[in-house]
C-alpha cells in the first residue's frame, strides 16, 4: 500500500516564532468500517483532533491508490461513504488536517459492500398496472411519469390508504432494508406524511407491523420521523429524528431490520445534510408474533399533500440462494389459518433445516406470478414449490387453454434459470370439472418432476367442502394446512 506522509509541523522553525505557532497533528485512531448497504459503508474513528480544522477520509479499492472521499468539520468522527459498488472491498484511512496541512495516516481498515440478491423492487415505476396497487386512496390521485410515482391527497387520509407492491408478498426474514427516495411538497394547510410499512396478508385493509413516518407542515420546516410500535399502538419512545425539510426537498429514508432491532435513517439529499438515525428494539416475546415472522407487502401511504416517489427498493442478503421458494396465492400466505404460523408454508419454513422463503400474494393468478418472475429469479432458489391456480379458475377471466399456457410460461422461466420446480396440484373448489382437467394435465405434462397431489388429500363430499376447509370452500383451515404439510414432507422428506 502507499503510505500517506503527514506534513504537520511539530518543531519550531526560524524567525523567532514560538512553539505554539505550529500545529501538532493528532493521528486518528480506533478506525472501524461498517457495511450499511450495498452502496454505503460507515467509517468511524476516535482521537478527534481538537486543534485542527477537522478530518479527511481517503478511500481505495486496491489498498494502494487512495483518493479523498470526504472532509468533515472539527469534532466529527464519522462518515458515510456513499455511492459505492455492490460486492466491492474498500480500504479507508483518516487524517487530521489544519489548512493545507495533514497529519500522518491512521491505520487502514477495510470492508466489503453487500451484494443485494433479494431486491424485490427496481427503481423505476414503469406502470401501476403491473404489481403496483392502490387501496382506499379516497380523494387521492396517482400517476406515473418519467419513472416517478406521484401520489397526492387533497385532504387528510388514514392508515388504510396506501400504495403497495403486491405482485409478491414475501417472508420478512431477520435482516432486510427498505429504501425510499421521495420529493415532497405540501398542499394548503394539510399536513403531509409518507409512511412505509407492511400490510398484513390476513387483514390487508390496513398497514401493520413497523411504520416509519415523515411529517411536514404546509410551509416546510422541521420534519419529524419516528417508528410506529404496534406492541404499544403508539409512536416509539426510542427516539425521534428532527431534520430541516423545505418544500421540494428530496428525502431518503432507509429502514433497516436486524432481527428484532429496527433502525431508521433519514437524509435530506437536496441539502446534502448529515444522515440522522436511531434504533428501536422490539421485545422478542411480543404478542403480535407477525412483527418478527410474517408475510407482508411493503407499501407507501400519504396522509395529505403531494409526494413524488423516485426510488423504492426492498432488499435482503438473507434471500441469497435460498434452498426453496414457496410460490403461490392466499393459501400460501396463510390466509384463514388461525395464525400464520399454522399455514403449510410456515410449517415448512419452520421445520426445514434450510433457508427458505415464502413468495405469495392475495388473489394472485398464474399470469401475475409469471410477470413477477424477474423478482423470483433474483432470489435464485434451488427449488420452487408451486401452488397456484385456484384464482385462475374462480375469477374465470381465461379459458382453460390460456391458463395452461400461462402456467407453462412460468415453469419455462424457472427451468431456464436452473430452478427445479416442485408441483402441488390445484386444490378443490367450485370449478371442479376444470380443476380436475388441469390437475390431470399437470401430472402428465410434468411427470419428470415431483408432483404432490394435495387435491386428492383435501377433496371431500360435494361440493368438495369438508373439515379441512375454513367454511368458504376455498381456503384450508389449520387441519387442512397440516394435511398439505404432511403430504409434502411424506413425498419429499429432503425438503426438511
Structural class: alpha+beta
Q: Sheet with the most strands?
A: 14 strands, mixed
CATH architecture of the largest domain: Sandwich
Helix fraction bin = 10-25%
Q: What oligomeric state do the depicted chains represent?
A: single chain
What fraction strand?
35-45%
Task: Say how many strands there are.
Answer: 29
Mean pLDDT: 77
> Kindly, what is the distance between the CA atoms of the first and last residues, rounded to a whole number of angstroms?
48 Å
Unreliable runs: 1-21, 201-207, 285-293
The number of helical segments is: 9
How many domains, in number, for the residues?
3
Q: What is the global morphology?
A: elongated
- What is the class of the largest domain in the CATH system? Mainly Beta
CATH fold topology of the largest domain: Jelly Rolls
Gyration radius, to the nearest Å? 27 Å
Q: What does this protein look like?
A:
The protein has 496 residues and is an alpha+beta fold. The chain has three domains: 94 residues, Immunoglobulins (Immunoglobulin-like), CATH 2.60.40.10; 186 residues, Jelly Rolls, CATH 2.60.120.200; 175 residues, 3-Layer(aba) Sandwich (Rossmann fold). The strands form four sheets. Strands 9, 12, 13, 15, 16, 17, 18, 19, 23, 25, 26, 27, 28 and 29 form a 14-stranded mixed β-sheet that branches. Strand 6 and strand 7 form a beta hairpin. The N terminus is likely disordered.
